[in-house]
Amino acid sequence: MKTIQGFVLIDVDVAALNNAGGDKSSNLENAVITKKIRKNGKDYPYVSGQAWRYWWRETLIHDYLWQMSPVIREKKIAYTEADPMKYPDDDIFGYMRAGKKEIEDPTTKKVHSVNVTLTRVSPLKNSALIGVAYNPVIQNWASMTRQDGDAVPFAIDEYCAIMKGMFSIDTDMVGTFSSINRTGYTNINDLMRKNYLENGAFEVDDPVAKDKSGNPLKLVRINRRIREKRIKEAVLALKTISGGAKQTTNLADVTPKLIVLAKFKSGNHPFSHLAKEELGKAVFSIQALGEVIDEYKSQFDSDIFVGKRKGFMDELDQELNKMKESGMIKSGPINEVIDDFVGTIEVDD
Predict the structure, then answer these.
(1) What are the residues whose beta carbons fall under 8 Å from the beta carbon of 188, sequence distance 6 or more?
(2) Which of 52, 235, 247, 254 has an alpha carbon 20 to 30 Å from 17's alpha carbon atom?
């Protein structure tokens, strides 16, 4: 397995990025609470992994003109077209299209139901974004006052936070599809497989699954250029990613202020504990980064790239420069580092 592993820190002030509905504990009829999670006896604001993925998709639509898979609604369920060769978001973000089809047996003429469910585990996996250090979420009073008469009061949760998040992209999985009749592995059906192969896709050996004779089962893979383009744009989107609730009055920049990127030879994420709380302040641990580089050196498939925005954690600059000069990392401004890292991305045929 070959993966891209990423770690980010974002920094927001007076933000409310991901709300959780009405606040039943408030005396005000109109009160909205933000999402928070309890850890070590304290509440930390967080952005759900689903919300972060939504921002990611929207950025790929607007900045990279991705054609997104249509969403189909049936009663209480919704699913995408589930066509990963045509739609890059079905490929990168995965899908589940549940369904049954009525088939008539040509011999008995009896109609029976056949499971036609298609599923794909997302090659792009991500954590939630969560506050690194404890900063209380504050409920503030506000009002709607543009109309005649009394103001309409409401309350909103707001916070300042440095938030950390992780993501991983399975580069071997991008643009590679299974039709194995097994839960989670039926990415495409037999008709789609035939159509893909007739339109430029080709077969490759499954590295794990085998038939009864011990021969590798076959996967379907689209061409290398398309696969690399999808992976690169998914990473590049972090330069301009935007989103979050309350942006009209609580405008927050959710692009990374610090990012760590590397190609890895396994699915393990080595960067999960690079940030911590120290004396009530969020800090990035240079020592933890050095330990990860040393302990996982046999697993890295590239240089380690570290990007940081000037004005954010400037106390790290001297140590990062030492690591850069020693050849341990490549570092620089955020967008420059992302561009340099993306330039190293290649996939196998």
Answers:
(1) 84, 118, 177, 178, 179, 196, 220
(2) 235
